[in-house]
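User: Quick one: structure for sequence A, then sequence B.

Assistant: Sequence A:
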Amino acid sequence: VQLVESGGGSVQTGGSLSLSCAYSGDIYDSYCMAWFRQTPGKEREGVAVIEGADGTTTYADSVKGRFTISKANTKNTLYLQMDSLQPEDTAMYYCTASDSPILCAYNYWGQGTQVTVS
């Protein structure tokens, strides 16, 4: 399994960025996939989850209404559209996937992409 994030960068407050995660290997369409983020000295924080055959989504309260997670199964790509970015959104963003059909067990991780908002 391989996950490769892209799309990070620097943006001004109020701006937008779109992250992508290209994945390959044994990641199935109905399994959970998610975006997490982490800043130095803090624990990794879940940002958004997409799961199930119907693509049910869940968001952290801090990003609800501003971020949108989506997935293109035919392209094996996970996305995170981030709008109205704030300085507190600055972090390393990680794509992750579950290896279980029963629960969201995030055992596959990408290398991360940096997002900086100033």
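Sequence B:
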Amino acid sequence: HVQLVESGGGSVQAGGSLRLSCAASGYTLCMGWFRQAPGKEREGVAVISTSSGSTYYADSVKDRFTISQDSNKNTLYLQMNNLKPEDTAMYYCAARLTFACTGGSWGAVYNFPNWGQGTQVTVS
């Protein structure tokens, strides 16, 4: 089990930027960001394999969001640029220790047993 603590959410106007951070308490193989808007299912935003650096993104955030990591600090980041009102959601950090991120099911919520408490992002 790994503990995850997110930070960096907030309120921003459309077109603005935010950077989310997620500090992990230990070793992981795949980490990612998910989001959940009111009345909607949780969805994958972006994930990164912590050993290879391979990344996968949702089509809705490609070219606007960038996922990255600082392996020395066990910290995950999500740089969000050109934010849109439809990006408004609770953003969650997730991780797993069992296998690396894979392309086919990279955004499957059920593949991630470890979750942070979430950080709110509001775009107006």
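The radius of gyration is 13 Å. The mean pLDDT is 95.

User: Thanks, that's what I needed.
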